[in-house]
Design goal:
2 helices
Length: 80
């Protein structure tokens, strides 16, 4: 029977790159939050606030997701 050495506990390396999905989702949520604040601030001056909220929410969520992804890429580039 071969002799085995005592097992050495290896600690996994820490992940240094940002988690892209979290940055993208955070940007999208911030875009939706900006939309809600903008629609509420406009108040009664909009005829159909639900339609404005929907379309502007989709637009700003996409912009926020792109900006969040760009921030993650920039942070990842700095660490390399």
């Amino acid at each position: 029977m071969p002799r085995t050495s005592p097992s050495i506990r290896q600690v996994p390396a820490r992940r240094l790159s940002p988690r892209y999905l979290r940055f993208v989702l955070t940007g999208a949520l911030l875009g939706v939050l900006v939309t809600v604040v903008a629609v509420v601030a406009r108040g009664a001056s909009v005829e159909r606030p639900s339609a404005v909220l929907f379309y502007l929410g989709i637009l700003l969520a996409g912009v926020g997701a792109l900006l969040g992804g760009a921030v993650a890429v920039l942070l990842d580039g700095r660490r390399r």
